[in-house]
Design a protein that fits this description.
With 207 residues, the chain is mainly alpha-helical. It has helices spanning 2-27, 35-64, 73-95, 100-109, 111-128, 132-138, 140-146, 149-164, 170-191. Helix 8 (149-164) packs antiparallel against helix 9 (170-191). The chain binds protoporphyrin IX containing FE (HEM). Protoporphyrin IX containing FE (HEM) is lined by residues 37, 40-41, 44-45, 47-48, 51, 84, 87-88, 91, 113, 116-117, 119-120, 123, 157, 160-161, 164. Residues 37, 40-41, 44-45, 47-48, 51, 84, 87-88, 91, 113, 116-117, 119-120, 123, 157, 160-161, 164 line the site of protoporphyrin IX containing FE (HEM).
Length: 207
């Protein structure tokens, strides 16, 4: 128990390093000619990376048998939400100056904004129901069904990135390919489940 708390502490510190570096760059004015773009792009990329790491936990656990990985999934997912919130806040505050009418116009005008917004909105119920209390309240089955929304959020996030990139789409397509592998692995196990007669890897209780 003590070990896991320490590991979670180490993970949190590591997950906050990119934010510290970003704030340091902003403080030293090392953010290029367009600071808003720099911060939006950095926080957007961090959101996507954390979201994909969250989605990678289950396949990695199943492939490697490292069951303890699941203990860190919630925390990584919450960091995805945290960076997503900062990304949205950057847009709402420094791009739109809290002008909600202008935001609605932008959502209608630029599809990538609408899709990004959808990705973030889908992550809200997941963050709210991430506590042990909420798992108990919803019941394991309903909770897992609800949390399948993360697949849609992942697809919307990659689509958002792909839509906003104007010329070189290699990076968004690479993220799309990684997402496809992560979701494809789940689909594969659904249709070709492991032989139940073979010794099964024990599932750890949610921590
Ligand atoms: C889960 C949610 C989201 C993810 C994963 C995400 C991800 C990303 C990524 C990866 C980028 C590009 C980074 C780069 O070019 O290096 C980006 C850019 C951007 N995102 Fe998001 N995003 C999300 C939600 C949103 C939302 C809700 C908004 C605003 C309503 C938004 C607005 C923008 C804008 C304005 C840009 C910069 C576009 C540009 O520089 O041309 N995103 N986002």
């Amino acid at each position: 128990m003590k070990d896991i708390r320490f590991s979670k502490f180490v993970l949190s510190v590591n997950a906050l390093v990119p934010l510290a570096l970003l704030l340091w760059d902003v403080y030293r004015k090392q953010v290029g000619a367009n600071p808003l773009e720099f911060v939006t792009r950095t926080t957007g990329m961090l959101t996507l990376v954390f979201l994909l790491i969250t989605l990678a936990v289950s396949p990695l656990r199943k492939i490697t048998g490292l069951n303890w990985l699941v203990k860190f999934r919630r925390m990584v997912g919450l960091f995805a939400f945290f960076y997503g919130f900062l990304h949205l806040l950057t847009y709402v505050w420094f791009d739109r100056y809290f002008n909600f009418r202008s935001m609605i116009g932008d959502i209608l005008e630029r599809p990538f904004i609408a899709v990004g917004m959808a990705a973030f909105v889908l992550m809200i119920p997941l963050a709210i129901t991430s506590t042990n209390k909420m798992v108990k309240r919803l019941g394991g089955k309903r909770w897992s069904q609800l949390h399948k929304l993360v697949y849609v959020a992942g697809a919307a996030a990659v689509t958002h990135y792909w839509l906003l990139v104007k010329s070189d789409t290699r990076l968004p397509l690479t993220f799309g390919f990684i997402l496809l592998l992560l979701l494809g692995h789940r689909l594969f196990l659904k249709y070709y489940p492991p032989d139940p007669h073979l010794p099964q890897k024990t599932l750890l209780p949610r921590d």
